[in-house]
Amino acid sequence: MTTEMKKLNVLMCGAGEYTTGWTEKGASKSDKKIGVVGLTLFDLRRLGKVDQLSMVGVSGAKFPAIKKHFEENIAGVYKDMDVSFESFPKADNYNPVAYKEAIDKLSPGDAVIIFTPDNTHYPIALYAIEHDLHVLVTKPAVQLLPHHNALVAAAKKHNVVCFVEHHKRFDPVYSDAKARAASLGEFNFFSAWMSQPKSQLDTFRAWAGKDSDISYYLSSHHIDIHCWIMQGRAVPTRVVASAATGIATSEPYNCVPQTEDTITLLVDWQSLSSSKHRGTAVYSASWTAPLKSGVHSAQQWYYMAEKGEINVDQAHRGYDIVQDETGKAWYNPFYMKYSPSESGHFDGQRGYGYISIEKFIDAARSVNAGHVQPSEFDGHGLPTIANTVLTTAILNAGRISLDEKRPVNIKHTNGEWILE
Ligand SMILES: NC(=O)c1ccc[n+]([C@@H]2O[C@H](COP(=O)([O-])OP(=O)(O)OC[C@H]3O[C@@H](n4cnc5c(N)ncnc54)[C@H](O)[C@@H]3O)[C@@H](O)[C@H]2O)c1
Predict the structure, then answer these.
(1) What values do phi and psi take at 376, rounded to 5?
(2) Which CATH code fits 8-167+352-384?
C-alpha cells in the first residue's frame, strides 16, 4: 500500500568536522567550517523533509560547545533554522558504544547517517540495519570486503536503504564525465591523484596510520568514480600497492611508525564484453602534499579509452581568489555554498555535498511511503551498498598488498566477491 511521504527522523553518528564543523581545536579552519551533515539536515527540516534530529559521539562533554557553535554560526547566520537535536551520550565520560543507546531510541523506518572514524563504520552500520533503519555511511564504507558483503546481505534482509556517501558522484563534472565515458569504447587507462596538505596529519593525528590510511581516506573517492564508470563494463582483477614513507613519521608530525605518506594502487581491469581488452588503473593519494598550494584537496583524474580520453581537474575550476594576507586560493563552490540567499536563507541546495544527503533522505522517505523498494536504487546508478562492493574490494586488496608485500587477486565466486 502506498501512502504520502512522511518527514524522516534522523540520527547523526559522529560529532566531528564533517557533521558539525567543530573539531578538537574549535571551529574547523578547513573548507567545512560549519560542517555538512548537520547544516544540510537543519535545512531539509526547514524545507519539510526531516523531523526529529539526534546526534551521537563518544562523550557528552563536547555538546554544549557544538550547540553554541550551531546557534551562532547557523541559526545566527541563516533565517528560519531550527538547530535543535537530542545528544548522546548524556554523560561526559568516554563511551564508544553510546550509538547503541541512540539507535535503540529510533523506530523502524527512521534513518542513521554515519560520519565516524573508518574502523567504526561497520559495527555501527550493521547495528542500525539490524534495527530496520535506513543507513547512509561515509566513505570508505568499511575497510574489509567481507564486512561490505555482510552489509549488502543485511540491508537486503531488512529491506532498508543503505547508501555510501560518495558525494563526488553528484559533482556535475564527474557525473557528466561518467555519461560521456560510456561512448568512448573499451577502457584502457585511468589515473587519479588526490592529496591534502601535510598539516592534515595534525588534524588526523588520532587515527592516521593507526586505524586507517590515506588510500582508504582519499583514494576511495576516485576508485569509486572509476568503478562507477566501469559498472557492468569491466571488473578489477588484480591489485599491487606501493607506498612512499618518511615524512609523516618525521618531525614535526611524528606519526606512528607504520604511517605511509603516499599510497599508490596499480589495478588490472578486465573488460566484460571483450576478452582481449584489458585496462590499467593507477590510484594515488597523499597527505604529505605541500602547504600553501592554494587548494585544500588536489583532485584530478585522466581516463583513456578506445575512442577518446577525459581529463578532469577539480582542484582548479577556473575560479581563484587572491587575498593580501594569504595569497592565491582555489575554492570549490560546487561542493558546499555557505553564503546566504537574497532572502537570508541557506542557499547551498545545489552543492553536491548537500545533494548527496538529500538523495538519501528522499530514498528513505519514498521507501517508507511504499513508493519504491530499496533494491530498485541499485538499478539507478546510485552509490548503494550493493553498487559499491568493488570499491571496497580494491581498497582492501591494496591494504593487504602493502602489509603482505604481494599482489592480491579479486574474484567472483558463488555469487560473492572475494580476495585471494
Ligand atoms: N572531514 C572530511 O572532509 C570528510 C569528508 C568526507 C568523509 N569523511 C569521513 O567521515 C568520517 C569522519 O570524519 P570527520 O572528518 O568528521 O572526523 P572527526 O575526527 O572530525 O570526527 C569523528 C567523530 O566521530 C566520533 N566517534 C568516534 N568513535 C565513535 C563511536 N564509536 N560512536 C560514535 N561516534 C564516534 C568522534 O567523537 C568524532 O566526533 C571518516 O570516515 C571520514 O573518512 C570526512
Answers:
(1) -65, -25
(2) 3.40.50.720
